[in-house]
Amino acid sequence: MTMAFTRPRGTRDFLPEEMARRRYVEGVMREVFESFGYGEVQTPTFESLELITAKSGEDIRRHLYHFKDKAERDLALRPELTAPVMRLYINELKRSPKPVKVYYIGNCFRYEEPQSGRYREFWQAGVELIGPPHEEAEAEVVALAMATLERLGLEGFEVHIGHIGVLRRILEDGGVREEDQNPVMNAIDKGEEAALKGLLEKLQVPEESRSVLLTILELEGPSREVLGKARALLAGRTGVLEELERFERVLCALGFFGVEGYRVDLGIARGLDYYTGTVFEIYAPRLGAQKQICGGGSYSLTETLGGAPVPTCGFAFGFDRVLLALEAEGRKLGGDKGPKALVVPAGKDLLGEAIRVAASLRKSLPCEVDLMKRKLVKALGYADSRGIPLVVIIGEEELAKGCVLVRDMKTGAQRDVKVEDLGSIKVHE
Ligand code: HAM
Question: In terms of domains, do 382 and 411 share one?
Answer without folding.
Answer: yes
